[in-house]
């Protein structure tokens, strides 16, 4: 009986380790090295909310280079993020900056306000700026909500995460994919 229990525990431990290893390698392939699209002129640049990692100044610099005449900054944090607030206060005769609080404060909420703004402004193309590891899920959600041309681009930065942090990121992004699949297309 004890031997049978030992074999079961060993098999269970191996199954857990194999699954964890597969998830980490799968996450590395899908999220850490997520492909991004080449930059090109678009109707608007949409900056997804998140970490203060330089995405807002990066998006503004892309507009300064002439990639778009409109920058939309997702501002789910209201007045709590100085970088976002600075970006929202940007004035430049070459482009307009609009800040929007998404409802709900999720990637889907951001895709929904992008669709609404696109209809209101006649946009047919947008450039979405976010973390590299968020791009696959953001693309999936935006494709379900926005019918125009999407360009997905990561803010240029490195991610010096521990193995545990990467594991969390992979699990979070994968759970987000499952949630998006269950939610279906935006109405």
Radius of gyration, Cα only, in angstroms?
A: 20 Å
Side-by-side strand order of the widest sheet: 3-2-1-4-5
Helix tally equals 6
Oligomer: single chain
What CATH architecture label applies?
Answer: 3-Layer(aba) Sandwich
The end-to-end distance, rounded to whole angstroms, is 57 Å
Number of strands: 5
What share of residues is helical?
A: 40-55%
Pfam families: DUF218
Protein name: DUF218 domain-containing protein
Domain DUF218: 43-155
Give your account of this protein's structure.
There is one protein chain. The chain has helices at 2-32, 55-64, 82-88, 107-121, 135-145, 163-183; strands at 44-47, 70-74, 96-100, 125-130, 149-154. Helix 2 (55-64) links the parallel strand 1 (44-47) and strand 2. It has one domain (44-183): Rossmann fold. The model has no long low-confidence stretch (mean pLDDT 89). The chain is an alpha/beta fold and 187 residues long. It starts with a helix and ends with a helix. The radius of gyration is 20 Å and the shape is elongated. The longest helix is centred in the N-terminal third of the chain and has 31 residues, at 2-32. The protein is 51% helix and 14% strand. It is built from 6 helices and 5 strands; from the N terminus they run H-E-H-E-H-E-H-E-H-E-H. The chain has a 5-stranded parallel beta sheet, sandwiched between helices. The relative contact order is 0.18. This is DUF218 domain-containing protein. Residues 43-155 form the DUF218 domain.
